[in-house]
């Protein structure tokens, strides 16, 4: 029950725009037993962050999910929770993606294991609106202060950064 209250409080904090926090406390082990202790938040240097090479892209005008994998390459267990920061870059233009959905419970990431999140975007097609020709994605893991920059693997995006409910957004990190 304490974890549910912690999750509710954290979700409310994020919803108020106060950012993603590093967490300490407990996480469910998924076995129905005692909760497992939650490790310190994963530092960017402990993670190998990459786009999934198996990504499938659709036709222009469709909503496309792109998977980002984060592998713990350190010798220590760390934890993840919430939404990564994702800024798409096109030359000197930057688009900070909105968060979509609610955050899952915090979880531990043991050495050698991976977590993932989705960047969902609407591919641009002629006449559909403003084209955003992304060349890279700047990714900051939840709870971290440093980022990595990866070449954008997708097509041009329908720019919706002013939309109330954009079809281009970042999802939360899941095990």
Explain what the structure shows.
- The structure is a single chain.
- The protein contains one helix and 15 strands, in the order H-E-E-E-E-E-E-E-E-E-E-E-E-E-E-E.
- The protein has 175 residues and is mainly beta.
- The strands form five sheets. Strands 3-4-10-15-8 form a five-stranded mixed beta sheet, with no helix packed on it.
- The longest helix is centred in the first third of the chain and has 14 residues.
- It is elongated, with a radius of gyration of 17 Å.
Please count the helical segments: 1
Structural class: mainly beta
Q: Report how far apart the termini are.
A: 21 Å
Q: How many strand units?
A: 15
Rg of Cα set = 17 Å
Strand order within the widest sheet?
3-4-10-15-8
Largest sheet: 5 strands, mixed
Proportion of residues in β-strands:
25-35%
Unreliably modeled segments: 1-32
Rounded average pLDDT: 82
Gross morphology: elongated
Could you state the order of secondary-structure elements as H and E?
HEEEEEEEEEEEEEEE
The helical percent reads under 10%
């Amino acid at each position: 029950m304490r974890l549910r209250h912690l999750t509710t409080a954290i979700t409310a904090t994020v919803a108020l725009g106060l950012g993603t926090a590093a967490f300490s406390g407990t996480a469910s082990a998924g076995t129905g037993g005692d909760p497992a202790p939650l490790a310190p938040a994963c530092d960017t240097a402990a993670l190998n962050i990459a786009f999934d090479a198996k990504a499938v892209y659709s036709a222009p005008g469709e909503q496309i999910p792109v998977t980002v994998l984060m592998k713990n390459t350190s010798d220590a267990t760390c934890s993840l929770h919430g939404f990564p920061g994702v800024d798409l870059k096109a030359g000197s233009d930057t688009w900070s993606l909105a968060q979509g959905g609610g955050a899952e419970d915090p979880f531990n990431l043991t050495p050698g294991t991976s977590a993932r999140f989705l960047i969902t975007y609407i591919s641009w097609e002629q006449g559909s609106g403003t084209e955003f020709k992304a060349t890279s994605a700047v990714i900051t893991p939840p709870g971290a202060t440093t980022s990595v920059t990866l070449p954008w693997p997708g097509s041009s995006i329908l720019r919706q950064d002013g939309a109330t409910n954009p079809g281009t957004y970042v999802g939360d990190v899941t095990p």
